[in-house]
Amino acid sequence: MARYEYRVLQLRESMIGGKLSADEPEKLRGDEAADGWRLKAITSTEVKGRVGPGGVDGLLVTPERPTN
């Protein structure tokens, strides 16, 4: 039976009115694939900001890869 490990990565809008770059998820996918990870799920969510209450729109990206 195959075993997998998972991570959850956050991509979010800029805190000062910027939108999430369309290139950012693609770059992340390439970087993760180079380390043996493959995309398992992407979830749209509100991600807590670093300053003050509330959050910003963002994505939770869940990659997986087989373990040895």
Explain what this protein looks like in three dimensions:
It contains one helix and four strands; from the N terminus they run E-E-H-E-E. By secondary structure, it is an alpha+beta fold. The chain has one domain (4-13, 20-66). Strands 1, 2, 3 and 4 form a four-stranded antiparallel β-sheet that branches. The longest helix is centred in the middle third of the chain and has 12 residues, at 23-34. The protein is elongated. The N and C termini lie close together (12 Å).
Kindly state the mean pLDDT as a whole number?
81
The H-and-E topology, N to C, reads as: EEHEE
Biggest beta-sheet profile? 4 strands, antiparallel
Shape: elongated
Distance from first to last alpha carbon: 12 Å
Our count of domains comes out at 1
Percentage of helical residues? 10-25%
Structure classification:
alpha+beta
Rg, alpha carbons: 14 Å
The proportion of strand residues reads 35-45%
Question: How many DSSP H or I helices?
Answer: 1
Uncertain segments are: none
Count of distinct strands? 4
Task: Offer a quick outline of the entry.
This protein is of the alpha+beta class.
How is the secondary structure organized here?
Layout lengths: L3 E3 L2 E4 L10 H12 L3 E11 L6 E12 L2
Antiparallel strand pairs: 1-4, 2-4, 3-4
Give the key terms:
68 residues; four-stranded antiparallel β-sheet; elongated; alpha+beta; 44% strand
